Recover the amino acids of this structure.
């Protein structure tokens, strides 16, 4: 008797530079390609199956990832090492697969995740850097990271983050839990690491924009807490550019 086809659920860890893309998700009429579409095209060339790649989250245009997690189901029996090598040979230089593994059929990259850790990087000095163009936010004005760190503590825990949700956000529940929020400086670089069980649309970029206002001394002590409690997006800072944002890790 012929062998029955076995359905596999394969998990990929993906690293990418988002500068040239419209974001993770396929978008009709977008002028740029999506990262999802590029990888799915490569997967089709290898498996000869039209698979749907499910990611842990839909990073926006210009946002990067060190370890995006995505899964797809296939009946193709290709060994994992050959799948990884094949994908990386077909993918462009700014998208690479760092790991491929078999996982349970019940695993879902988005719904199985417990939290995601993002880093926003600011180059804080008098001149920009050609080497980091498109990967950091250049901000030439002095920022008080100690003040930013102290004021940011009010964001830890479970809150309604409506004040930091973009007007186009469609999420029904604005309540999220921030598990970690660290602000550190290494030379000219400021790193803002935020880990939460989920994020509203542009939530991180709006929080960073508000923290920059804190660091500039434009918001008085305690004002960040007031902005959080008032749930009014108009009170928070500007939405910073996406280029400084990178998905570092997804926890399951």
């Amino acid at each position: 008797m012929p062998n029955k086809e076995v359905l596999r659920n394969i998990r990929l860890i993906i690293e990418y530079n988002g500068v040239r893309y419209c974001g993770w998700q396929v978008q009709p009429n977008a002028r740029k390609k999506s990262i999802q579409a590029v990888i799915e095209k490569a997967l089709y060339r290898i498996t000869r199956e039209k698979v749907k790649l499910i990611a842990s989250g839909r990073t926006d245009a210009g946002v990067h990832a060190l370890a995006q997690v995505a899964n797809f189901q296939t009946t193709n029996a290709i060994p994992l090492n050959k799948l990884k090598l094949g994908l990386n040979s077909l993918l462009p230089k700014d998208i690479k697969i760092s790991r491929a593994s078999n996982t349970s059929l019940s695993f879902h990259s988005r719904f199985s995740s417990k939290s995601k850790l993002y880093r926003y990087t600011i180059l804080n000095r008098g001149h920009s850097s050609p080497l980091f163009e498109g990967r950091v936010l250049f901000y030439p004005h002095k920022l008080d990271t100690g003040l930013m760190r102290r004021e940011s503590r009010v964001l830890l825990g479970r809150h309604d983050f409506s004040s930091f949700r973009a007007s186009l956000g469609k999420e029904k529940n604005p309540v999220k839990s921030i598990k970690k929020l660290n602000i550190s400086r290494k030379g000219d670089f400021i790193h803002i690491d935020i880990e939460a069980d989920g994020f509203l649309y542009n939530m991180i970029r709006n929080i960073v924009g508000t923290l920059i206002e804190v660091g500039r001394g434009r918001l008085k002590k305690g004002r960040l807490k007031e902005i959080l409690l008032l749930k009014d997006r108009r009170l928070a800072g500007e939405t910073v550019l996406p280029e400084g944002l990178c998905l570092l890790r997804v926890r399951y």
